[in-house]
Amino acid sequence: MTASIAYKGKTIYELPASRSPDISSVFFMSVHKSGSTLMNNMIRAACQMLDYEFVDIQSHFFNTGVSDSDIPAETSEIFKPKGYVYSGFRYFPNQYEIPCLNDCPLIVLVRDPRDAVVSQYFSLSQSHPMPGKDADDKLFKHMEEQRKATLGSDINEFALREVGSFVKKLETYSEILKTHPKARLFQYEEVIYMKKKWLMSMLNFLEWKMKPGQPMNLANRFNVVPKAEDASKHIRQVHPQNYMTKLSPETIAEINKTYASTLLRYNYI
């Protein structure tokens, strides 16, 4: 039996019947501006090759215009212990439960929050796509306001104001990883610079069997590294420690002091 999600009395999502009902379901989670889109696209393509059922519910909510604060609690009903690959999470959801989380493999991808917040500044001000409005226009209006506020902010002001939200997401993942029985943590640099190695490590961990040549083809397909920085592009630049050229020494020192415990936990300082 599949499940559905309703919003304001209207069904906005129906879980498809799985094409791969016997596989253990898997969860891929990350943080905004931390390689999440790249990982999501690679996993989507891998599922197409393997004929696995791919589910990205967070993107679906965004594309239909459902705000994070309005996500229905009944979303928990779409999570099944077998048959699905759940991806696209940019934070660990608190609007609904994931009953089978500890029964399924979990992969978490993270990035230095100082780099992530710099990337978020340029994304919100210039390149981030706008949400849909089919279900509601509240999210669209909110992002319009966010873009205006970001354009009116100095990057240092923005970083000091927003970096805490990235740190909070890392702390949440840290707590989950302490007790999850089958989880793997990967760093942004691995998926950016070592796509084939990262992909093979992930495939081995999940015991996914691809045909010969498919992992290399998949890694090459997504091996996009801009030659020069372009603030108007979603992939503005990919190299780590970009924050050191964008933020003032005073801002960096303040972030390092305020969030030292988390930065140390993830080996960022």
Structure described in brief:
This protein has 269 residues and is an alpha/beta fold. The chain has helices at residues 36-50, 57-64, 113-127, 138-151, 155-179, 188-193, 195-206, 214-221, 243-246, 249-258, 260-265; strands spanning 4-7, 10-14, 26-29, 53-55, 84-89, 106-110, 183-187. The protein has eleven helices and seven strands.
Give a description of the structure.
There is one protein chain. The protein has 269 residues and is of the alpha/beta class. It has a single domain, classed as Rossmann fold. 46% of the residues lie in helices and 12% in strands. The chain has helices spanning 36-50, 57-64, 113-127, 138-151, 155-179, 188-193, 195-206, 214-221, 243-246, 249-258, 260-265, and strands spanning 4-7, 10-14, 26-29, 53-55, 84-89, 106-110, 183-187. The strands form two sheets. Strands 4-5-3-6-7 form a five-stranded parallel β-sheet, sandwiched between helices. It has a two-stranded antiparallel ribbon with strand order 1-2. Strand 1 and strand 2 form a beta hairpin. The mean pLDDT is 90.
